[in-house]
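Per reviewer request, we include the raw input and output of the structure prediction for the construct analysed in the revised manuscript.
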Amino acid sequence: MFVMEILSSSFSARSQQRDRSVSVLQLDGLTIRSAIRSEAEYLSDLALRSKAYWGYSRDFMTDCRQELSYTQQQIEQHEYSFVVAELEGAIAGFFAIEQLSATEFELEALFVEPLYVGRGIGRALMARAKQMAAELGGEMLIVQSDPHAEGFYRALGGQPTGRRESDSIPGRYLSTFVIPLQYVTIESDD
């Protein structure tokens, strides 16, 4: 388990747009930083490997490919924040959050390289996602969960809110959660 002291990222409170400089956070050999546009293809491949880890069929994975593909343009859009975790010099996982309104954010992606599953990478990424959303004025983080991750999101404070149809598989409904952000600590630059 990683012991975390989250450091503040550079955000413009007035514009609510991210500073494009790569902010870095180091914990016990884990570096959490902003993704860069050239990593889009790698992150797409990582998302597919991570999803496949749970034993989904080849046909299922083919159906998910478009939803789990990320573009350089997405990484640079101001309403999204893509963040990677590096361990031992390799990208070990990533998340993306999308700002839906002034107070609502959605976890668009959270994937961990199969080699690193169970090493605290997902928890570290979720801690950063929650902090990031709170820094931007978020009051809640919405999550649409793969069935294999429901326990993970519940353990991190996720409160069930219902179900929503998958963007990839018509007729497949996934649980949704909301994670309140009012108790998330926001570190200052002081």
